[in-house]
Fold this sequence. Notes:
Distance between the termini: 115 Å
Strand order of the largest sheet: 1-2-4-8-10-11-13-15-17-19-21-23
Shape: elongated
Number of helices: 3
Order of helices and strands: HHEEEEEEEEEEEEEEEEEEEEEEEH
Number of strands: 23
CATH superfamily of the largest domain: Ribonuclease Inhibitor
Strand content: 15-25%
CATH topology of the largest domain: Leucine-rich repeat, LRR (right-handed beta-alpha superhelix)
Amino acid sequence: MTAVLPMVKLRALVGSFALVAVLSVGVACAQELPAPAESSDRATLMALYNATDGSNWANNTNWLSDRPLGEWHGITTGADGRVTELNLPDNQLSGSIPPHLGGLTHLLIVHLGNDFGACDSGGCEPSSATANRLSGEIPSELGNLSNLQSLNLNYNQLSEGIPSQLGNLPNLRSLDLFGNPLGGAIPSQLGDLANLRELDLGYSQLTGSIPSELGGLTILERLELSGNQLSGGMSPELGNLDNLQALDLSENQLSGGMSPELGNLANLQGLSLSWNQLSGEMPRELGNLVNLNRLDLSRNQLSGEMPRELGSLVNLKSLGISDNQLSGEISPELGNLVNLVVLALRAIAFQIILKIGLKCCHDLIV
């Protein structure tokens, strides 16, 4: 009996080693297989590749391979292997954006636009020979990307409007849809993007009025809505954008008077309202914009005298007020604009220079 016991113990010991070995192999295999979440991201990227003619991209290095996703061209992943950045600008993507992209819930940055382009009355065209030319709609599923901080789809051929679901992106800091024939109105839901700093919807064939809800974007620094067909009056709520540095509403169909609330934008450096149908007098409150270096109000229907308060804009370098219906005497206070180098007043420019004194005009271009 005493001789049997060691054998039983030995068999038990061998069995234990065998069990540990099996478990170790199992763990090793599990580590080699992609996690379910990473596999889901991989499948989503494959759907993007197939939907946008990936075989003809300018650069598709490692796409559809078994390499880690972070080694696929334009993809950045976090420590957990999940996709955090999708950067494929100027890469010859064509076709439509698949709705599957809304499943990449760890995304922080999406750049499927183009870095350079130009616009005229006929529309916008990217400059690069390898430009992206995405078409169709912007999937509403992108509103599921709750971690997204930057979305850039500029200079493509996207249409069918701006989905209101983009207003569900609480961490979004930059939204750039410039140069797409989107059409439709600006969704009021964009006013819910409390962390937004840049909103660029220029040259997008947008119609309707500027939503008053945009006045709730209190940390916004840049608002670009030029080159659309926006109509109606200027929303006084825009005066709530305390951190705004650049406001461009030019080349629209805005009418009525200029909002005196614009004078509340103490950090504003550039203001362009040209090529609209604005009427009435220039508000004296514009004199509060002491950081302004560019002011363009040309090609409107403004009337009355130039406010003497404009003489407080000592940082102003460019002033455009041509093709309006301004009249009356030129205030001598405008002679305080010692940094002015561009003064667009057309035929009466030289008369005004003499009126306000040459001290403002040592490098003046008329």
